[in-house]
Amino acid sequence: MNDQTTAFIEAACVPLDASHGAGTLERADAILTAHPEVANASIHTAAILGDDAAVRRFLALDPGNATAKGGPRGWDALTHLCFSKYFRLERNRSDGFVRAATALLDAGASANSGWFEENHQPQPEWESVLYGAAGIAHHAELTRLLLERGAEPNDGEVVYHTPETYDNAALQVLAESGKLNDDSMAIMLLRKADWHDYDGIKYLLEHGADPNRMTHWRFTALHQALRRDNDLKIIEAMLGHGADPALPNRWDGKSAVAIAARRGRGEVLALFAQRGIPIELHGVERLIAACARNDAAAVRSLAAREPQLVGEILAEGGKLLAEFAGTANSDGVRHLLDLGVKAGALYEGDGYFDIAPNSTALHVAAWRAWPTTVKLLIERGAPIDARDGKGRTALALAVKACVDSYWTYRRSPESVEALLRAGASVNGVAFPSGYAEVDELLRRHGKMVG
């Protein structure tokens, strides 16, 4: 195999790192343009390009090509096909890829082929061709073909990564195949909570996923939906399919009720109460829940009768204040502040929400686009220009939230306005070019960006 062919295969297949779904075709296309002969160099390059006619020619020349290993990674042709960037990125070639895969399977390729990824974290992992089809390309037709030919879906990679999209076609093929076990269905349901995907969650619940089944992460899907601050309608859907909020997780023993309280989800606690679900909490979590539900009378009563609970609130005040701020519970934030939590208390962060260590609640509210909470924290003395563990100020995060955040429907310059009014420094803040609303705010407040 010549250098150009080797370079093409490396450029055209998924990167061997933590994100197999990353990368573009720029380098591969450049090699192909300069060396068009690479396209027909072997059954491996033909498979990468989804060239079914060329794949059949190589099989006619030698049926052993169906299982022969080749290329710099020592993969067979079906593995090259399923982990091809062309397969993932050029949907107009889909039919050719399916025909090529069919030819390879007909000639003896295994639907359980793949490779052992030594770089996978936290430990090496088998990366099956089904994972490539369903978990990276999210390709329903090839997923169906591989399942029909005997592919095993109940591994860690297939069911973990297939839900990582809002296009649920491949997920539906898996769910309807009858091949997924209960653990796999529960994993996919939990992962859909990571994606806040109501339609995907509803589909899985309707097709037998159990919201009470404990996953190997020691959480159920309901626990995860609350840990990830899913919308109330997702919680309602899980409750409608029998989710038990009293069930403790196996990580720290907390129930969904306790998780909801600690994340300031007063509306979730109200939903539980409306459904007749007992709010059974103990110790300081009773006071946390009273704050979350904006039950001022209960807050006063508990604080007066059991003053040690206030001390426990203060001991974890940074975390509680930040997580209440992250769910826009301004009333709850106010109660925590009134109990003595400092507005600038530090939070250890949350990688899932891109919240760095040493953040304050103001950082969290600014990044997660909750202007009412931002204004409250400013009024209560939160340090305006404090920097989080990544060196970002609340203003930097508020600007970033306007143009580069998951919660696109909440993008607004209102938090930027509040911070500028409070005198936030623009030094070190990356303002997006041409974002007229922010430009106008800077002019209005007489700020110059150097």
Which helices and strands appear, and what pairs or packs with what?
Blueprint: H1 3-12, H2 26-34, H3 43-48, H4 52-61, H5 77-82, H6 85-89, H7 94-106, E1 114-117, E2 125-128, H8 129-136, H9 140-148, H10 156-161, H11 169-176, H12 182-194, H13 198-206, H14 221-227, H15 232-240, H16 256-262, H17 266-274, H18 284-292, H19 296-305, H20 307-315, H21 317-326, H22 330-338, H23 361-367, H24 371-379, H25 394-403, H26 414-421, H27 436-444
Antiparallel strand pairs: 1-2
Helix pairs in contact: 1-2, 4-7, 8-9, 9-11, 12-13, 12-14, 13-15, 16-18, 18-19, 18-22, 19-20, 21-22, 21-23, 23-24, 23-25, 24-26, 25-26
Task: State the CATH architecture of the domain at 1-180.
Answer: Alpha Horseshoe
* The CATH homologous superfamily of the domain at 1-180: Ankyrin repeat-containing domain
Helix/strand structural class: mainly alpha
Rg, Å, rounded: 26 Å
- According to CATH, the fold-level topology of the domain at 1-180 is Serine Threonine Protein Phosphatase 5, Tetratricopeptide repeat
- Which regions contain 5 or more consecutive residues with pLDDT less than 50? none
Count of discrete alpha- or pi-helical segments spanning 4 or more residues: 27
Measured distance between first and last alpha carbons: 53 Å
Total count of strands: 2
**Proportion of beta-strand residues:** under 5%
Shape by Cα distribution = globular
H and E order: HHHHHHHEEHHHHHHHHHHHHHHHHHHHH
Task: Please write the CATH class name of the domain at 1-180.
Answer: Mainly Alpha
Give the mean pLDDT: 94
Please list the strands of the largest sheet in the order they lie side by side: 1-2
What can be said about the biggest beta sheet?
A: 2 strands, antiparallel
Helix content: 40-55%
